[in-house]
Design a protein that fits this description.
The protein is of the alpha/beta class and 420 residues long. It contains 18 helices and ten strands. The protein is globular, with a radius of gyration of 22 Å.
């Protein structure tokens, strides 16, 4: 899963959620007679993630499902990501959406709150990693199933650690451990930096959770990060800039800056996603990963897609069977691992042996250990504006134009204004 795809998902999609909510509320009031039971049915399935190279893989999963379920035919409709959510919005509003469709987490929040999704009645919950399953529930009701995931871990250059005589990171590390190591690993004369973690909304909400805080209050009516935890999180990110990690003036934040720096052997630790494994396969040094350090607690960023059943579908039972197969079957697991099509959400790690043994990084188990303590992105109607406001204030603090306290206070006021 590409970094750009995951991290740009929320702003690209949520720009349309105000219109979506208004339209979908109307469509959710429609009632349709259920399909006759006992006869063959066709399930229309709308998706975006198979586009661009995985169409045949999805067709193979479909064929396996139809073989096991001869009374159901699946009709797949694949749309490029950039067009998918606009098309889906129109289809839901007009009552022409598929019986089942794919959503990322950010859009799931919106659809699950406007009546567009059918509650799932026969979910085998033990099949899924708990944190992934929970992402697609709302108010105690399971409205979707996790389809795939990726997350963020701490990459590290083993050679640089050995050269500096610093103990390698472990799953027990805290922020203090990471900072102490980063200071020892930073070598200004050699152009080596100890650490890199983007100063951004996406890293900040995660750091707030790691510090034991909340980004929004329980009913999502007010920012909750103007707190000791929120200030600690901002200081954690901002305090690295220019000391143990590069500044914006050094090029930090520009495309591929961090990956190039790490691959060139000039970066000891790097907070980034598992989608970067393939790009580092030919790195000329030994490297590995661990679960990211926490402060008051562990909290790993998780990005996930899911599949849901349309509340207006006449074929909900068949659609539910299809999405269960699509997200938990052995055929799906094998196909995803064989083709590197994101990671399957299954709980049984014995089924993931080929991934765990696939080579560097050696500690691929950390990918799944990270799922034991996760934090999902806060989602509001004016998502892009929230992300921009938080990023702007943190960048100003990193540049020394304002204090960390001012940055947190300003960002909280901006978010509060967006929530009104």
């Amino acid at each position: 899963m590409r970094n750009t795809a995951r991290r740009s998902a929320a702003p690209a999609i949520l720009a349309i959620t105000l219109a979506l909510s208004a339209c979908a509320q109307g469509s959710a009031t429609r009632t349709e007679e259920p399909a006759e039971s006992g006869g063959p049915v066709t399930v229309r399935y709308m998706n975006f993630s198979a586009n661009g190279g995985h169409e045949e893989d999805l067709d193979a999963i479909k064929a396996a499902f139809e073989s096991a379920n001869p009374d159901v035919t699946v009709q797949i409709e694949t749309t490029p990501y950039d067009d998918y959510f606009t098309k889906l919005q129109t289809a839901v509003a007009g009552g022409t959406a598929g019986d089942a469709f794919e959503l990322n987490y950010e859009n799931f929040v919106t659809y699950s709150s406007n009546g567009s999704l059918a509650p799932l009645k026969n979910v085998e919950t033990a099949s899924y990693k708990p944190s992934l399953l929970e992402a697609f529930s709302a108010d105690g009701t399971q409205y979707g199933l996790p389809e795939s995931f990726s997350n963020v871990v701490l990459f590290y250059n083993k050679d640089l650690f050995a050269k500096a005589g610093v103990d390698e990171p472990t799953a027990d590390w805290t922020w203090a451990d990471e900072q102490a190591a980063a200071e020892k690993l930073t070598d200004e004369k050699a152009g080596v930096w100890g650490d890199y973690q983007p100063i951004s909304f996406f890293e900040y909400y995660k750091a707030v959770a790691q510090a034991g805080g909340e980004f929004l209050n329980a009913d999502k009516t007010q920012a909750a990060f103007d707190s000791d935890a929120g200030r600690a999180a901002a200081e954690w990110l901002v305090g690295k800039s220019g000391t143990t990690m590069p500044t914006e003036a050094d090029g930090a934040g520009t495309p591929d800056f961090d990956s190039t720096l790490f691959k060139d052997g000039k970066l000891a630790m790097w907070h980034t996603g598992i989608w970067m494994f393939s790009g580092m396969a030919d790195a000329p040094f030994e490297w590995d990963i661990v679960v990211e350090p926490g402060d008051a607690e562990k909290a790993s960023a998780m990005f996930t897609n899911g599949v849901v059943v349309n509340a207006a579908s006449k074929n909900q039972e068949a659609a539910e069977r299809w999405i269960a197969f699509l997200t938990s079957s052995d055929e799906m697991v094998d196909k995803r691992l064989e083709t590197s099509w994101e990671l399957p959400p299954v709980a049984d790690e014995a089924k993931l042996a080929s991934y765990l043994d696939a080579g560097a990084p050696a500690n691929r188990q950390a990918v799944f250990a990270s799922l034991d303590a996760t934090v999902l992105p806060p989602v509001i109607e004016r998502q892009q504006e929230m992300q921009d406001a938080v990023g702007k204030e943190l960048s100003a603090a990193a540049a020394g134009r304002i204090t960390v306290d001012e940055a947190v206070s300003n960002a909280a006021k901006a978010v509060d204004a967006l929530l009104k």
